[in-house]
Specification:
This protein is mainly α. About 80% of the residues lie in helices and about 0% in strands.
Length: about 210
Amino acid sequence: MSLFILATLAAFFIKGLCGFANTLVFQSILSFGVNNASISPVELALGFPGNAILTWQNRKSLDPKVFGPLMALMLAGNIPGALMLSSIDGRIVKIIFGAAIIFIALDMLRGQGKPRKEKKWLTALVGVAAGVLSGLFGVGALLAAYVSRITETNGAFKANISVVFLAENVFRFALYAALGILNQAALISLSLMALVPVSYTHLRAH
């Protein structure tokens, strides 16, 4: 349990700083000794308060043209991702997670520079791929890298990425419950750490 608490503190410190990457940190720390199917439900519920706080704080920068299409595509991608999480061997899931981290890092390096308008097919690809990764691991860094390229201010980035994550959290919570991924053990772990993400995200956002 101490490792879960350490991972939570580190993850939501980062969440408050940049608006995302909490799941990437959380999963990376715990994946060495815990099955991803046990990690994702806990992080999902822990991440909800932080996304709600960041969305509210940056609500004036929300742009439906940015978050609307990405939200719909990400929710669609959640379904195959969650199905994979519930059925694939845990060792294979960890390999996929490692490959995803490398790909996201390369994409973020490629995307450095001024904001620009991306092609529609790329928006669709990123949205669905981000949904699959989120369904599997809760990782939204691929989407964050994309949104950072099409928004001009830090407030706009945090607002639009957080509202997508917020809607995705609600949808994925129901999806995990339906598939049996959200189990009693995950709920017990969650109850022991419920206040950590709220306090840390709120502190770092200021």
